[in-house]
Amino acid sequence: MRLSRRDAIVFGSGLAAGSLGLWGLSRRGDSEPEGHRVSRLAERASYGHGVAPPPEVGPLALDRVTRPPAPTRPLEGRTRALDLEVVDQRVAVAQERSLAAWTFGGSLPGPILRAALDDPLEITLRNRSGEAHNLHFHGSHDVAADGWEPVPPGGETVYRLSAGPIGVHPYHCDMTPDGDHIANGLYGALIVDPPGGRPPAEEFVLVLGGFDTDGDGRSDVFGFNGMCGFYAKFPLKVAVGSLVRVYVVNMAVDQPMASFHLHAQTFDVYRTGTRLTPDDHTDVVMLGPTERAILEFRLPARGRYMFHPHQRHLAEGGAMGWFAAV
């Protein structure tokens, strides 16, 4: 944002149509009417301006792809059976913008999967799409379950693997060109819990995606969990001082890099989550396509804490939101 150093802007509530409301600003000696100046600077100071979520969605619309299932206990030799269906579905990703998506289970991203380390998983993929697809998990598993073989329309395949290593891992269609299959919505997140679990926390999953809504082969808008500007309109509420854990996954595969930046606070970074001690303590983490991290932090005072990529076109394209400490 290119604002005069004399402009003091306090970001506040009143987010609508992707613009930030202004609690107040003053500028001595400015003869421009106050209302005009506030409006002008609000427009200049907007994040994701013009890329708002669809107006009909409510605050719970993305809960099932934002809030992970509760941590699981080890199955101790029993098998965890999971079903995923590939479904063609038009998905509203922003106000007046939609994507003719390929989805796992009808949602973009697909459902959050969770298992304990070494749990035997049996995932049945049913292809209800008109195109061939498959299912590939990141992490460590038997090469026979690597998932590169096409599953034809109407077909199904069972993948058997052991969950691991600990951390957060994307799953996605791996058909070529994979940029098409991933960008069209075929991706999700698998959380693998360590023995004994992690400390109790308020947990969220944020999967960054890009959406080609104008059909030119490139993402023109961006958002977390399949929607632009959703967490700007509906902030993620947490209790002041509580431990917050965020599983961040970058699935904007047509972008060379994306960062995750938290305003006014710092966080512990667990790269991929494969270690139980932090790799770094910072306020911004860089993620290449399909890279991920577990972030932990506490918000010490009431207020709104912004988050977004530090690549300007991603944030202004809809990938920004707030944590609201209450």
Question: How is this structure best summarized?
Answer:
The protein is mainly beta and 326 residues long. The protein is built from five helices and 21 strands.
Q: Show unreliable segments.
A: 1-45
Helical content stands at under 10%
Biggest beta sheet summary: 6 strands, mixed
Rg, rounded, reads 21 Å
Count of DSSP H/I helices: 5
Average pLDDT works out at: 86
**Beta strands, count:** 21
Biggest sheet: strand arrangement = 12-11-14-19-16-17
Distance between the termini: 28 Å
N-to-C series of helices and strands: EEHHEEEEEEEHEEEHEEEEEEEEHE
Structural class: mainly beta
Overall body shape: globular
What percentage of amino acids are in beta strands?
A: 35-45%
Description:
The chain has 326 residues and is mostly beta strands. The protein has five helices and 21 strands. It has helices at residues 34-44, 63-66, 178-183, 230-233, 312-316; strands at residues 11-16, 19-22, 80-94, 97-104, 113-116, 120-127, 136-137, 156-162, 167-172, 187-193, 202-211, 221-224, 236-238, 243-250, 258-262, 267-271, 280-282, 284-287, 292-298, 303-308, 321-325. Strands 12-11-14-19-16-17 form a six-stranded mixed sheet, with no helix packed on it. A five-stranded mixed sheet has the order 13-21-20-15-18. The protein has a four-stranded mixed sheet with strand order 4-3-6-8, with no helix packed on it. The protein is globular, with a radius of gyration of 21 Å. The two termini are 28 Å apart.
